[in-house]
Design brief:
Chain lengths: 80, 201
């Protein structure tokens, strides 16, 4: 059986799932093959991937309010 | 001591848990209350936590469920979701449109350049607020996705919804988030600056 072949539209429809590694191995490989030969799609996927990474990094930098752990520890101590 | 072990595990998970709570409650004071309530529940149920597994994922699940359980008691979901969904890669689409509108003034500028300027120009609190503004059904899924490296199946297990629902909510939620980020960037002049920067270069 020949491997799955995707055009630009079919590839782009799989953008989110591909970046999240949620496609089947066959589909993941088919998207990767298309990106190797299509600079336009490869560029768009790369921008989207960097965007997601940047948003995750920003959100993961937000700190809990000072003293929150102490206030939790005090409530736990009051329970015991 | 179970309490010492619990707080030692909780400490590195606390900031992500607070950010998740902020997205869910849309309010710093309510977010702190939610994290405190969830922590107390988690401590009471600490005996069920499997040592060696991912404490943060376990605790984020408790934060989410504590919020959902309290909300179910208060009111049903009321957020209406427009059927007019933005397309995926929304920021890139908008960036390319603006570059096309600018014509030769934006020569050499790529969609990626404008997207990068938008993301770099928005701070963490602004991005967080944009997630908090998502309709209820997308907020929890998107927040869990951005704050922890969970698979769709793990998010589905956390929220007790089918994995297909996670997939569709996450795809739509991401597109809606990008739409909000673009509007913020326009309001703050980040898009104009990106295009003007090229003109001045």
């Amino acid at each position: 059986m020949s491997p799955l072949s995707l055009d630009c539209k079919e590839t782009f429809r799989r953008l989110d799932d591909y970046l999240d590694r949620e496609l089947t191995p066959e589909e993941q490989a088919a998207v990767a093959r298309h990106l190797e030969i299509c600079a336009g799609c490869a560029g768009e996927f790369a921008v989207e991937g960097r965007l997601l990474d940047a948003l995750k990094a920003k959100l993961r930098r937000i700190a809990a309010p000072a003293g929150l752990l102490d206030r939790i520890a005090a409530r736990i101590a009051a329970e015991r | 001591m179970a309490a010492d072990e619990f707080t030692a595990l909780l400490e590195p998970a606390l900031s992500r848990a607070y950010t998740l709570a902020l997205h869910l409650t849309r309010n710093p004071a309510d977010a702190e209350d939610l994290v405190q309530d969830a922590a107390l529940l988690a401590y009471r149920g600490f005996g069920t936590f499997e040592r060696g597994t991912n404490f943060r994922a376990w605790f984020l699940r408790i934060v989410t469920n504590t919020f959902l359980s309290a909300r179910r008691k208060k009111r049903p979901e009321t957020d209406a979701v427009s059927l007019d969904d933005p397309p995926n890669a929304y920021l890139q689409r908008q960036a390319l449109d603006r570059i096309a509108d600018a014509g030769s003034l934006a020569d050499g500028l790529s969609g990626g350049d404008v997207v990068r300027a938008v993301v770099e120009g928005l701070d963490a609190e602004q991005v967080s607020r944009a997630i908090g503004e998502l309709p209820d059904e997308f907020r929890a899924v998107a927040s869990l996705y951005f704050l922890d490296d969970l698979s769709y199946q793990q998010i589905a297990d956390t929220l007790a919804i089918p994995v297909g629902t996670v997939r569709s909510r996450l795809h739509r939620g991401r597109a809606l988030l990008q739409q909000r980020l673009w509007r913020m960037a326009e309001d703050y002049g980040l898009v104009s600056s990106a295009l003007a920067g090229r003109r001045q270069a």
